[in-house]
Design a protein that fits this description.
The complex is a heterodimer of chains A (297) and B (223).
Chain A lengths: L1 E8 L8 H11 L7 E7 L8 E6 L6 H12 L3 E6 L2 E6 L3 H11 L4 E6 L2 E7 L2 H7 L9 E7 L14 E4 L2 E9 L2 H10 L9 H14 L4 H11 L2 E8 L3 E6 L8 E4 L3 E5 L2 H4 L9 E3 L7 E4 L1
Antiparallel strand pairs in A: 1-8, 1-14, 2-7, 2-8, 3-5, 3-6, 4-5, 9-10, 10-11, 11-12, 12-16, 13-14, 13-15
Helix pairs in contact in A: 5-6, 6-7
Chain B lengths: L1 E4 L5 H10 L4 E5 L16 E5 L14 E4 L15 E4 L15 E4 L12 E7 L13 E6 L15 E4 L10 E4 L3 H13 L10 E5 L15
Parallel strand pairs in B: 1-2, 2-3, 3-4, 4-5, 5-6, 6-7, 7-8, 8-9
Antiparallel strand pairs in B: 9-11, 10-11
The chains are: A alpha+beta (297), B alpha/beta (223).
Chain lengths: 297, 223
């Protein structure tokens, strides 16, 4: 069992409150996932000439030294903002060159996300502690996904936590379990997709990364996932402009969606959505099985 | 009138009160999707829940009349024994699962697996139901005024299914059956007592072909 939450703010006036709204939803999903919590947040897109990455270090890290070294090596402006065990790097350079440099020079760091607007934070422990540690109430943005994990098939570590990056400005959170992830992991590795853990949800993320790389649109990739992924799932997929939701054809794993003039939200359970302002006027429905739902600008 | 406000009162205190006291009426406010509201009642109390509820609301209900003015999460009225549970909005999956008696009325739609393994409950859905509804249904009646999703009545035993709208693919061993005058009359009475407006003559009946659950001695070598 896990908890998923997602919120997309139609009303720009609410953007400063995104982190607080997400925190309330995430904490409400603690029963569904007390092992770890994570979010993907979209805000302040950088121009095309720059890129934004979220980095993670399991150990105490000298982020300032990294920033100086990176700026000198890449000969580019680098800004770095530390959030607990994570740091957001904005570099005036092409994303591929920054990723290549990090992998070569600092393999001890894990790249949690890459793109222009996405930031991913995730950590072991209760959602309430996560919210406090990452100061969620101070985070603004246009939309976000969150996940609370109850581990059923692989270890409880930060690396096994959701969301998983699935490419530039894309990420995935998952409630459920996949049955064919070992076979799929081998296939994806043969295709050159970098999968780092034995987690089933990371395979789903890798699958989407592969299909998008092969030229599928997100919608096409999700339609194909209905055939290729075997198991139980409710997925929420964060994109630069919004988010998408997909449930497997059997649809055992719960999901509920709601919309007002100000926001669109999804969650594993209504009680997370019940935390949002104006919910009493929301249109509420359950997403149908095997149907792709998308929101965005 | 007793009021429990779940913003300040706990669900456990509410349920304990419902088990211990013999109030005639009780109102629950601010349910906010909480789980297990008004479960295990064994008295003829009338409970009104003002808002949306989460998992397993009104489970195991005996004799109580429970009204949910909102939507219900998964497993509403699970194993209902008697009494009435009425939902003004939609219900999530496995509504009325394994219910043994009483009536469950859903004024909106129900999603997947409505009435799974039902054992005597009457379920009246004014809207549509999702896939795998009445799976392994043993006894009772599932009435769907709208459409039914795929695999309706899969592996059904002796429950009755009535559908007014379209039916997707039927489940294993589920077939359309003759709608006799007695069936129409029984359905008319049930719709009237559930206060759901629909013309009983417009429904089709589905039930078991009885080829799956009966041991057939002629095919002994096939088992």
């Amino acid at each position: 069992m896990c908890g998923i939450v997602g919120i997309y703010l139609k009303n720009e006036g609410l953007h400063p409150e995104l982190g607080g709204l997400l925190a309330a939803m995430l904490i409400e999903m603690s029963d569904r996932g007390p092992d770890s919590a994570g979010i993907a947040l979209y805000r302040d897109p950088v121009p095309d000439s720059s890129c934004k990455l979220t980095l993670y270090s399991a150990e105490q890290y000298d982020w300032d030294a990294l920033r100086t070294e990176m700026a000198a090596s890449l000969q580019a402006d680098v800004k770095l903002d530390v959030h607990a065990s994570h740091a957001v790097v904005i570099a005036a350079a092409q994303v591929a060159s920054v990723q290549d440099w990090l992998r070569a020079q600092h393999p001890e760091l894990r790249i949690m996300s890459a793109g222009s607007a996405i930031e991913i934070y995730k950590e072991k422990g209760l959602p309430r502690e996560f919210v406090k540690r990452f100061k969620l109430h101070e985070l603004n943005g246009s939309h976000a996904l969150g996940h609370t994990r109850m581990a059923t098939e692989s270890a409880v570590t930060t690396e096994h936590s959701h969301p998983f990056s699935t490419g530039m400005d894309l990420c995935l959170v998952h409630n459920g379990s996949l049955s064919n992830h070992n076979w799929l992991r081998r296939t994806l590795r043969d295709e050159g997709v970098d999968i780092q853990t034995d987690n089933d949800s990371e395979v789903a993320a890798g699958y989407l990364m592969w299909r998008l790389r092969e030229g599928d649109s997100l919608e096409e990739a999700l339609q194909r996932a209905l055939t290729d992924l075997d198991g139980f799932y409710t997925f929420a997929i964060g994109t630069k402009d919004g988010f998408a939701v997909l449930r497997d054809p059997i649809a055992c794993k719960p999901a509920v969606m709601a919309e007002t003039d100000d926001w669109v939200a999804m969650s594993s359970e209504f009680r997370a959505i019940a935390q949002l302002p104006g919910v009493e006027h929301a249109t509420i429905w359950e997403p149908a099985p095997a149907t792709v739902y998308t929101w965005g600008r | 009138m007793t009021v429990f406000d779940l913003n300040s009162d706990s669900v456990r205190a509410l349920n304990q009160h419902l088990h211990d006291s013999s109030s005639d009426y009780l109102t629950v406010t601010n349910p906010a999707g909480r789980h297990c509201i008004a479960c295990g009642i064994d008295s003829a109390v009338e409970v009104t829940i003002d808002g949306h509820v989460g998992y397993y609301c009104a489970g195991m209900n005996k004799t109580a009349q429970i009204t949910i003015a909102g939507n219900a999460g998964p497993g509403v009225a699970e194993n209902i024994m008697s009494g009435t549970v009425r939902i003004s909005g939609n219900a999530s999956q496995y509504a009325g699962a394994s219910g043994r008696g009483g009536t469950l009325i859903i004024e909106g739609d129900a999603s997947a697996r409505c009435g799974i393994s039902m054992k005597g409950v009457d379920i009246v859905v004014a809207g549509s139901v999702g896939h795998m509804s009445a799976f392994m249904a043993q006894k009772g009646r599932l009435v769907v005024c709208g459409d039914a999703g795929d695999f309706l009545g899969d592996s059904i035993y002796e429950a009755f299914i009535y559908v007014r709208g379209n039916v997707g693919e039927l489940g294993a061993d589920c077939i359309e059956k003759e709608m006799t005058a007695a069936h129409v009359q029984g359905l008319k009475d049930l719709l009237a007592s559930a206060a759901v407006v629909a013309d009983a003559d417009e429904f089709r009946r589905y039930g078991s072909a009885r080829k799956l659950y009966n041991f057939n001695v002629d095919h002994a070598n096939d088992y």
